[in-house]
Every structure is written in C-alpha cells, then in structure tokens.
Design goal:
- The chain folds into two domains: about 70-155 and about 310-450, MetI-like fold, CATH 1.10.3720; about 180-300, Immunoglobulin-like, CATH 2.60.40.
- Helix 9 (about 345-355) packs antiparallel against helix 10 (about 360-370) and helix 14 (about 410-415) packs antiparallel against helix 15 (about 425-450).
- The protein contains 15 helices and eight strands.
- The chain starts with 16 loop residues before the first helix and ends with a helix.
- The protein has helices at about 15-55, 70-75, 80-110, 115-125, 130-140, 150-165, 220-225, 315-340, 345-355, 360-370, 370-385, 390-395, 400-405, 410-415, 425-450, and strands at about 180, 190, 200-205, 230-240, 260-265, 270-275, 280-285, 295.
Length: about 450
C-alpha cells in the first residue's frame, strides 16, 4: 500500500484595507510625480540652473577663467554707477508700490459708486495689455522736450503762456550805433536822455516780416507825429525794408511798426511810466514831470519762448519713469483691491451708516482695516515687481541720463552685455537682486498660506 505524502503549505496572508490604501497612495504619488516631472525639468533648466550658474560665475573675473572670490562683490559697492542703481531702486521700492496701492484703493472705492463701473475698470486696466516696450516708446514721445512733439510739454507751455504770456519778439535786436544800448539783463535803453516834448524812433532788426503779428501797420506816419509839451512820444519799428533799399536808422515808408512791444520811461533808475506799442509801433507817455528820461525796452520783450519742463533731465528722469509705471499698473492694483472690496461684509458698513458715520469715517475705520490683508499682498507683489523693472528704464531714459536713471536690473544688463562685458560683476549684481527679492517673495508666500488656512 503506497502512501501519498501531501506537503502542507501556508496560505498567503490576506490583503488588508490598510495595505491596499498604502499601495494606492504610492501609485498616486508616482503618477503625480510623472505629471510634475516636465514642470520640474523646465523649472530646473530655466530657474535653478541659471541661479546656481550665476552664483558660481560671480566668483570669477570678466573672462570667467580666474577665481577672484568676493572681489566682484567688493567692486560692486565701490562703483558709483552701482551705488546710483541701489539708490534709484530704493526710490522705486518706497514710492511706486505705495502710490499704486493708494491709487488702486481710492479708485476701487470710487468705481463702486460709478454707474459705468465695468467700462471704467476696463479703461484703467487696458494699459496692462500694452507691453513695456510699447509703453516705454509712448512715454518717451510724451516726455519729449519739444512742445511740438511732447504732449506733456505742449500742455505745460500752453498753461504757462496763458498765465504769463510769451515774449513778442524773442529774436529782435538793435543795431550797433543806432541809439540803443543793451543792458546785462537783455533790455535796451536809449543812449541819450530825452525830455517831454521829444519824439524818439527805436529801430530793431532780427524779426522776419512773416513773424509780425496780424494787423501790423507801417510806422512811417507814426514817426512823423509831433509830441506835445507834456508828453513823450515815439515809435518802435522794424528797421528793414522788404526787397532791399531804405536807410538804416530812419523810418522808411515800407517799414513796419512793432506792435505789442512794452516800453518804459525811466528816470533815476525808476520806472516813471509804461506803455504798449500800437499796431503801427507808436507809443506815448502823458503827464510826465519835466526832466530827463530814458526810454527802455524791457527784457521781457526779447525773452526766449518757454520750452517747458525737462522731464527726461537728470533731476526728473526717475520720477518721470515711475509715472509711466503708474499708468501701466494702476489698473492691476484697482482690480485686486476691488475684488477684496467686494467680499467685505456689507452689514458692517450699513451698521456704521445707521450709527451716523460719514463716508470718510467708514473708509478710514472700517474699509481700510478690513482690506489690510489684501492691501499687504498688493503692496508686496508690487515691491517684487519694481525691483525687477528694466524695460521702462532702458527705453525711456535717454543715453546721456541713462546712468542717472539706472536701477539694479538695468545696471546688471549694462555691466554684463551693454558695453561692460564683465559677466562676473554682472552675476554679482544678479545675486544681489535675488537676495533683495527673496524676502519679499517668502513673505508673500506665507501670507497666501495663512489666508488659505
């Protein structure tokens, strides 16, 4: 009888729910990693590697072959241009985000009270669709010093001339030896003294006949008039005969008077009387006391035309560029703050109105405190943005004042590629800019995490 031996084997342990859960989680992590891997590769290639390379490159010389340690960082703070860039960057960080946050808050509150709020928001947000390159070109033209090209200077000149007027004859001058002497302030006076009862002729040149005001008449008839015993009479004329001919120092029949010219009668250094020439250039002073006088043509008659403000000069170039930045980013700040404003509890605002608070008190004591988290996020975001500003500064600032307007980003580019060809020093500037931006970025990330909790 044969016996069959049966080998007993232990059955596999049953799969528990916990094991199955762990396997699903592990599989989910692997799938998630596969999805994230392309983004991680791009992040490493476009962000991590350039940062590490720049840090390493900052310890080498311009050629990249000799290790110089911290010499680039020392040189960075000895360079006057870099110190100017640090100063300008500080101005940007202090001024631009504060102004933008304030403007965005005011506009967000006011827009709620406007009937066409959506259209108004669209108009303010539209500059965000314009590239910094295009915006820089627009404002470079707007800030042009020539009033015929720059719209801002055209407006400034128009307002100035409306209140102070403009000189009548900026190019006019007197001929030497024709009875007029030029003073240091640009005015002209008669070389010899005159008295009541006299008539004087004051000839000027340097004015094109086509530039004379409309309605100008010949001065010949006015020059022939006699003065009364208690008056001083004269004529200011253009000592130039169209087509040639005529005699210098004498009023000829075809020579025009110079209207709207200010004339003064001066005695002992003080102005005794004033007058304005008529359309034929004639003037007269009545009721003068007996004695000797000088006839003076004030310098205001010959002042050069007002050319406006040098927006892109060394003194104003940074504020001018900040103004262009405000035009672009005000809509961004307004939309973000407006989104936060829409989430405010309306019952708190209505309760304050019922208690008798006016709109200013509601804005100052309720709206602003409740919007503080949103305002902080907007402010810090703008701080990060202005630290990296490059396009506007590089495009708007003209070459001669580029150094006066430079910030860290433009200085880094100029040192590395814009003629300096010192990528070691440029990399050090890049590392400095990174170190300045990182704290603001960390603060913003923490704010977002706390708000999510």
């Amino acid at each position: 009888m044969t016996a069959t031996l049966v080998k007993e084997t232990n059955p596999p342990p049953p799969v528990t729910v916990a094991d199955r859960t762990r396997r699903l989680r592990r599989r989910g992590k692997i799938v998630a990693l596969l999805f994230v891997l392309p983004a991680l590769l791009l992040l490493g290639a476009l962000v991590v590697y350039p940062v590490l390379f720049s840090v390493g490159r900052s310890f080498f010389d311009a050629s990249g072959t000799t290790f110089v340690g911290g010499e680039n960082y020392t040189e960075m703070f000895r360079d006057p241009a870099t110190l100017t860039a640090v100063r300008n960057t500080a101005i940007w960080v202090v001024v631009a985000p504060a102004l933008l946050t304030g403007l965005g808050l005011i506009l967000a509150v006011l827009v709620e009270k406007v009937r066409w709020a959506t259209a108004f928001k669209l108009l303010l947000f539209m500059p965000m669709a314009v590239s910094f390159l295009a915006a820089g070109i627009i404002f470079r033209l707007a800030y042009d010093e020539d009033p015929d090209k720059g719209v801002l200077n055209a407006a400034v000149v128009s307002v100035h001339d409306a209140f102070k007027g403009e000189s009548s004859y900026p190019t006019a001058r007197a001929r030497d030896g024709q009875g007029l002497t030029k003073d240091k302030d640009g005015s002209y006076r008669t070389s010899t003294s005159v008295s009541p009862g006299d008539a004087v002729t004051l000839g000027l040149v340097g004015v094109l006949p086509d530039d004379l005001p409309g309605g100008t008449e010949p001065a010949y008839a006015a020059a022939g008039r006699k003065a009364g015993p208690d008056e001083l009479r004269g004529v200011v004329y253009l000592d130039f005969t169209p087509g040639g001919g005529g005699e210098q120092g004498k009023v000829d029949r075809r020579e025009s008077g110079l209207p709207q010219m200010k004339v003064e009668a001066v005695r002992d250094g003080k102005t005794a009387a004033t007058a304005t020439t008529a359309s034929d250039g004639s003037f007269r002073f009545e009721g003068l006391a007996p004695g000797s006088y000088e006839v003076k043509l004030p310098s205001s008659n010959f002042a050069p035309p007002y050319e406006g403000v040098s927006w892109l000069g060394p003194a104003l170039v940074t504020p001018a560029i900040i103004g262009a930045y405000l035009w672009i980013w005000t809509g961004f700040a307004m939309v973000l703050i407006g989104a936060g404003l829409s989430t405010l509890p309306r019952d708190a605002l209505e309760a304050a109105r019922i208690d008798g608070a006016n709109e200013w008190q509601i804005f100052r004591r309720i709206t602003v405190p409740l919007l503080a988290p949103v305002l902080t996020v907007v402010f810090v975001t703008l701080v990060i943005n202005v630290m990296k500003v490059f396009d506007l500064v590089y495009i708007i600032a003209p070459g001669p004042v580029q150094e006066d307007a430079t910030v860290l980003a433009t200085q880094m580019w100029l040192v590395s590629f814009g003629g300096g060809n010192n990528q070691g020093l440029g990399s050090a500037l890049g590392v400095l800019l990174l170190l300045l931006v990182v704290p603001a970025m960390v603060f913003n990330v923490r704010r977002f995490r706390r708000s999510q909790r």
